[in-house]
């Protein structure tokens, strides 16, 4: 049984002396055979640097990358049997679709034409492009081109596939339809994969586990469900899209408490004010409600926006800072309005502040 990928205390730096930047600051991560792990983090957090170090494209300043417990130090890129797929699939324009996919096949020149064609067809079926073999790549849509790139990178059956933002050049609708397809394809091919993205939805759709990266370090590695249910701390929660209430949210005389808003019971509220504890509001947990603004938690509307068919208000909530609330269709809100708020108690977590 293969042990898969094991990254131990990896450090990647660029430059030297005063110009030295540490892009990866000591990361340890394991990817089991057949597992898809997403590296999720904001731009510049070091995701690509880590991926490139695993590929062998970037040297490690410290730490190790191993496959099946064999250290890969000194093993060049082309001898790692890893596949790579980038944002721009970089198809060969002078080859047709089948020619591009066949390029990835091992020993392609020695393969009988029929066997080669059968394998190419199989790979095109896998990515949902049956019958596309003779198409010129210049006639493909962006999404089709990336699916061809995926088929090409799967052709040699790499023991690990490294994907660096493979969907980020595509529009949102395409990303949303291709992410589940990518997952199905990776699962069907039994591919072990490390998948770099800055898009939460994509990471949660594609991966078995998500590694949240920030400033060169991994903050939390967990299944999508566990990550959502229990972010490790307020930083991870904020990155996932929770509305984090600044410190002191429940302290007496230190701004409004959680209980004020009917969020949680009094015991929860007192904890929320303890040192080192923050409140995290799950998206959708805060709602604008009709009612007497003098009696309940209120917020001043700063902006109104539409997101996926729902109206949201960006609010300045006294003592809670900027928060986002869902606005029901029957309530009209405008910038400057003072609105009454209710919070779904099930959507509130108390988390340590890092
Ligand atoms: N070749 C390089 N030379 C110097 N600094 C670099 C180099 N490549 C990356 N960096 C720096 O290392 C840090 C991490 O970059 P990296 O590309 O790994 O982040 P990322 O999370 O993949 O970001 P993005 O999503 O924007 O690609 C950044 O501060 C970046 O400026």
Determine the oligomeric state from the structure. Answer: single chain
The overall number of domains is: 2
Sheet-strand content, in percent, reads 25-35%
How much helicity do the residues have?
Answer: 10-25%
Distance from first to last alpha carbon:
38 Å
The fold-level CATH name of the largest domain is: Rossmann fold
User: What is the C-alpha radius of gyration, as a whole number of Å?
Assistant: 24 Å
GO molecular function: ABC-type ferric iron transporter activity; ABC-type quaternary ammonium compound transporting activity; ATP binding; ATP hydrolysis activity
Enzyme class: translocase
InterPro entries: AAA+_ATPase, ABC_SmlMolc_Importer, ABC_transporter-like_ATP-bd, ABC_transporter-like_CS, ABC_transpr_FbpC, Mo/tungstate-bd_C_term_dom, P-loop_NTPase
EC number: 7.6.2.9
Summarize this, please?
Keywords: ATP-binding, Cell membrane, Ion transport, Iron, Iron transport, Membrane, Nucleotide-binding, Transport. This protein has 354 residues and is α+β, with helices and mostly antiparallel strands.
């Amino acid at each position: 049984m293969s042990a898969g990928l094991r990254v131990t205390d990896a450090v990647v730096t660029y430059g030297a002396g005063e110009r030295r930047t540490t892009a990866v600051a000591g990361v340890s991560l394991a990817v089991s055979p057949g597992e898809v792990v997403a590296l999720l983090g904001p731009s510049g957090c070091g995701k690509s640097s880590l991926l490139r170090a695993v590929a062998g494209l970037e040297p490690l300043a410290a730490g190790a990358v191993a496959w099946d417990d064999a250290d890969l130090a000194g093993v060049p890129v082309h001898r790692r049997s890893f596949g790579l797929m980038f944002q721009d699939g970089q198809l060969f324009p002078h080859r047709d679709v089948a020619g591009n996919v066949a390029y990835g096949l091992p020993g392609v020149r020695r393969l009988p034409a029929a066997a080669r064609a059968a394998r190419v067809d199989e790979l095109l079926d896998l990515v949902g492009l049956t019958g596309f073999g003779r198409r010129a790549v210049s006639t493909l849509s962006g999404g089709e081109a990336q699916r061809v790139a995926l088929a090409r990178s799967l052709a040699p059956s790499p023991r690990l596939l490294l994907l660096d933002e493979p969907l980020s050049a595509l529009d949102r609708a395409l990303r949303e339809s291709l992410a589940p397809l990518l997952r199905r394809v990776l699962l069907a091919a039994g591919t072990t994969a490390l998948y770099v993205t800055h898009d939460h939805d994509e990471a949660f759709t594609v991966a078995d586990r998500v590694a949240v990266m920030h400033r060169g370090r991994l903050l939390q590695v967990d299944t999508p469900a566990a990550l959502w249910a229990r972010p490790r701390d307020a930083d991870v929660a904020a990155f996932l899209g929770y509305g984090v209430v600044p410190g002191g949210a429940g302290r007496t005389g230190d701004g409004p408490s959680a209980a004020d808003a009917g969020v949680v019971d009094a015991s929860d509220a007192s904890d929320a004010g303890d040192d080192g504890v923050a409140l995290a509001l799950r998206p959708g947990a805060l709602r604008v409600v009709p009612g007497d603004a003098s009696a309940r938690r209120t917020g001043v509307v700063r902006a109104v926006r539409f997101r996926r068919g729902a109206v949201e208000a960006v609010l300045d909530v006294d003592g809670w800072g900027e928060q986002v609330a869902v606005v029901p269709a029957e309530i009209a809100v405008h910038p400057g309005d003072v609105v009454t708020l209710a919070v779904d108690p099930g959507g509130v977590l108390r988390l340590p502040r890092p």
